[in-house]
Every structure is written in C-alpha cells, then in structure tokens.
Amino acid sequence: MEKESQVLQVLIVDSPDEATATSKMLADESQVFSIWRAGSLLEALDVLARRGFDIIVSELNLPDSCGLDTFEALRLHTRGIPIVIMTVADNEQLALSAVERGAQDYLIKGKVTNSALTRVIRYVVARHKGSQRGAETKQDGARAVGVMGVKGGVGTTTVAAHLAAAFAARVGESAGEKVLLVDLEASASSSSVLFETKPQFTLADAAGNLHRLDRKYWSGIVAETKAGVDLLNPPGSRSYNEMPAPERVRHVVRFARNFYPLVVVDLGVPGTQALEVIQEIQDLVLVVTPNLMEMMEARRALQWLSQTGLAADHIHLIWNRVTRHHTGAIRAFEKTLGLTAARTIPDCAAEIESNYCDGRFLDSRLPVRKEAEGLAVQLLGRDAARESRSLLALLFHVGRGRDKAPTPPANADRGFTTSSTGGSHK
To answer: pTM, whole model, 2 decimals?
Structure first.
C-alpha cells in the first residue's frame, strides 16, 4: 500500500502519436507513474472530470485548441493541478508565456531526454505539494451553495431564485459583484420565468463547449438580470433536452467559481447529476414540504446524502409551505432525527400566484424572500473554522467520507433528499 500511494497520476495531452511517444519515455518508470492520455482538450477535460491527477503534461496546439488558449482552459478547469508544457521548438516563446501565466515548466520535444522528463515531473509534483503544505489554507474558488428538493414540486427553484437574489443584494452592497445561479432543470424553465430572461443559450451550451469556455464566451451565454444575478439558463428553458453528462456540468460549475464570489446551483432532486455537482458544493439547502410522503423520504434521503461527504453543519433544512396545523408533525420529525430546521417558510402560495399574475416574480416582500435573506446572512456569517461532524455520524454515529460515491436510490432521478441542522457550515 505504501508503494502504491507513491505512484503519480500523470495526464499527457497531445496528439495520439505524440502522447504515445511521451508515454514510452516514461515506460521505465511504470512503478512510479500511472499514465493517462488525451488526444484533445475536450477529451482531457472529460478525463479530468472523472479522475484526479498529480500533474498534466500538455502540448499547446491541439485539434480543438491552440496556443495559450489551451493552457488557460486547462488552468481554469483544473485548479490546483500543476501543468508542464511540452511542445516543439517553434512554440518555445508561447511556452515561456504559459510559464509566466502559471505553468510550472516547459520542455522542448526532441531535446528532452527520458531521465530529464522523469526528473521534471517528479520535481514539479514535489514542489507543488510542498507549496501546498506551506501555504495558508484558503477557499478554492468561490463558495457554491446547492439547493435541492426532496422531490419535484416542493418549491426548490423558487427558493434557489430568492436565495440567489438575497445573496446578490448582500454581495452587491459590499463588493459591487454579481452572483451566479445555475439551473440544472432539463425539462422546465422556471428560473428563466422568475428572472424574466429570454434564453438564447443555456447550461447545455456551456457543457457542450468546455474547450471554448473563457471569460468572453461565458459573457455571451449567461443572462444578466435586474436582480444582480447572472443566470445560466436551464437546458429546458429553450427546448426539452436531455441533460449534459454530469461530469461536464460539474466542470461548468467549477469554471464559473473562478469569476463569482458566490454561485447558487439549483440541483433539482437527487440523482447522478446532483451527485456529481455536489462535489463542487460547500453548503446544501434541502427543501421539503411538511407532508407525510416527503417526510417519509427524508430519512432515507439523508442516509444517501451523507455518503457525499457533506458535513451535517453544511446542510440546511428548509420547511416550505408550512401552515399552523403542520407544527406538531414538524416538531415530531425533527425530534426523531435530532434535526433543527434552518428556516421555515409559511405557505404563501396565494400571494405568490397573485404576484405572478401581476408580473412580479421575485417580490422582496414575500415570506420566501424574507427567509432567504435570513439564510443568506447565516451562510455569509458562519464561522468557516468551525469543526464539523458527518451527517451519518449524527444519525447513526458512523462517519463516512467522500472516497466512495454513493449509489443513487432506485427512484433517485425522480427525486428526493433532505434534512439537516440549521447551524453554521464549513
């Protein structure tokens, strides 16, 4: 096991022939390196979404990307992985420019020996790990908050939209920046309606063009709103579509975290999409209505959710559409599972519908906005250093990590998930 832990995961990004040649240069070090190859930028991003690597060795000119655009795309999509440029002599000036922008080193094809390549890879990885140990711990990109419902129809998108608007009001006041809302809905356009956007581009466009994603492309596909929220419209807002591959959606969220102080993701309901994107989430808001079926699903959903590695104090239970006669059932539910809701939203369906009829889709006077504002304050003000406990440990006194991905329940793609404490989060 000790020997296995020392094997370095290396991704070589180059044309098939060149990548094979580079792999052969490392063949004598098979006990030290585990080699993976990608023939294009898009293929590299797909591989990176599925696996972790210690280092990337990449050509700058690929079939779907050229020059510094290749390096910038890899850098933006793979925060924290050191990159070494390996290119031809004609591109040496470009390689130097890449080093100035953050590449760890560059090598010239035809001039580098097997031993030199091995030495550079080992040195770069060792230097990178040493710098990580010596540096102060800091957040890797913007904070991302996921909003998930126990099932469809519990008001998840409404909560997500009001929470994003509440964040935008807070962040805009203090820093003059926008908040991003990403909606994963494949067959509806609720967020587009709430923010009154006319979708020309959606999440599907971003996920299908990972190799082209940069600030300019992003600004062309995201929709600006009056609420200070940038909206990446859901695929379902333009047509009924299948969702993009989950790992591509995760890459989009990871990319977006480079440019916003806060990202809110409407995860919809539990399933493979949500499971993948949760890996980019720091806090999760779980929306449930106080009906028997939803509450019956909640405990089972919690057991599934705990296996994602999210700590209990990162998960916030929101009761939605609560009336006075629900009080007893809610108390009994919370007592049984030892949970306390972060927020309770009274049933304001009539007010919401009246506002919708008047064209007021995100009225700040609605109870849902008031509770969203309270949750935003709670999330922005929590102590990041607070020690956390795993959710499963709270339920069953057993801790589970994020090493193994949980298997979604049989009805996962139809939806459920929720419950947690209303404390502060990591």
So the answer is: 0.77
